Amino acid sequence: MSAHEKRFPEGFLWGGAVAANQVEGAYNQGGKGLSTADVSPNGIMSPFDESKDALNLYHAGIDFYHRYKEDIALFAEMGFKAFRTSIAWTRIFPNGDEEEPNEEGLQFYDNVFDELKKHNIEPVITISHYEMPLGLVKNYGGWKNRKVVEFYERYARTVLNRYKDKVKYWMTFNEINVVLHAPFTGGGLVFQEGENKKNAMYQAAHHQFVASALAVKAGHEIIPDSQIGCMIAATTTYPMTPKPEDVLAALEKERSTLFFSDVQARGAYPGYMKRFFKENDISIEMHPGDEKLLKEHTVDYIGFSYYMSMTASTDPEDLAKSGGNLLGGVKNPYLKSSEWGWQIDPKGLRITLNTLYDRYQKPLFIVENGLGAVDQIEEDGTIQDDYRINYLRDHLMEAREAIADGVELIGYTSWGPIDLISASTAEMKKRYGYIYVDRDNDGNGTCKRIKKKSFSWYQQVIATNGESL
Which residues form the active site (predicted)? Predict the structure, then answer.
């Protein structure tokens, strides 16, 4: 197939993605309550801490709360067709269990969505992205408690009803499989001594599956033409060698993630997980009707993040670990790594796209992909981030190959189109954006926005629908 024949479809949703808790700031304004993100001092792997020392960069964000018009204008200048963000649950229900929502919080997102519409940018909205009301953790035990399903459904129905004329694309949870890797961030889980942690994490996951299905049900009722997706942190896993044991280890590693999309896209717990539960003394409490609910309210599309691939080995000698988006893995000798140890594998994105599409035959949406790096401002005031351009170009070219393979891909929103607070490390120096934000790791700076070299590059990619790659 010639390069000319490989192209992105008409109407492809080009854009960028952020999370409310990483950009908004204004943590105590507009009636907002405290969330789990507000008490994670060093990023999502850090423990629960409500002391003053825990006040982190999330509190400041990049002041999107006050600067959203300026930022959206910059996204429009790049030509964005879509912008993925999240609604901060605690702006709508500050403690999580209120009967009535906070009007000031609802109005803020009305304003944001109206601004996007003004620029013909489609909002893609995550209902819960790496945060939940701290009140639901302290008073109910987070997602371990079935009662939280009820609170989430009330929240989901509130925002679906409020924005039914403004938002068509929704996702129920961000990287829902992360409850296994960062349980406090993914599920508001705090463990008691001697508790069966695996059981608690999978029970929390079950409650999130039920909540997600209820949100899909509500979305289809309230917004008949809506598209409601799930979202997973996706990583292709390679066996380190052709040794059958390594191949099986890679399969099992992949299934630990695919389980989460299996339940939401196929509507049932797969057999391999039933065996896993039995062998790990895990017992999931289900309510009557849960299985029917999961079966009848599957997602419309699969959203996923892709930053890196992983390698699985059964050889005790393979101890050189590589860092990653919480998921780790054995270092792949054929790949280069980012400054944070994430292994760069564009071809893995094509493999991931084909794997997911073959498995589900549902539209796919790359809702996160990007390179975190330290950017330098040159003497002339420019930021020459060719390393970011190269990373994104290589991944987009592989996405185009997957489309040529027959994969139905509806959009690409790169992670962090504007610099934001890193979720994994709660620092500012790990930058992803096409737009530089003058703020440092200590929260100092003017928050001035500066276009990087990648800004005009991505602008050209969108203007040509990917032809300029």
Answer: 368
The domains of the chain are located at 3-463
Q: Are 155 and 170 in contact (CB under 8 A)?
A: no
368 is annotated as an active-site residue: yes
Residue 421, C-beta contacts closer than 8 angstroms, at least 6 positions apart: 22, 23, 56, 57, 58, 60, 61, 62, 427, 428
Q: Quick one: pLDDT at residue 162?
A: 98
Closest CA to 261 of 363, 408, 407: 363
Please tell me which residue, 328 or 264, carries the higher pLDDT value: 264
Give the pLDDT band of residue 327 (cuts 50, 70, 90).
low
Q: How far apart, in whole angstroms, are the C-alpha atoms of residue 305 and residue 236? A: 11
Instruction: Supply angle C-alpha 456, 458, 460, rounded to 5.
Output: 70
Mean pLDDT of the chain: 93
Residue showing tokens 């000798």: 333
CA atoms in the 13 A half-sphere facing the CB of 184: 22
Distance CA 342, CA 215 (A): 33
Residue 461 structure tokens: 């990619």
> Which entry of 175, 368, 398, 401 is annotated as an active-site residue?
368
The token pair that represents 427 in the structure block: 């620092």
Distance between CA atoms of 192 and 200, rounded to whole angstroms? 10
CA dist 252 and 75 (Å) reads: 40
Mean pLDDT of 155-176: 98
Where in 87-226 does DSSP place strands (E)?
A: 122-128, 169-173
Assigned architecture for domain 3-463: Alpha-Beta Barrel (3.20)
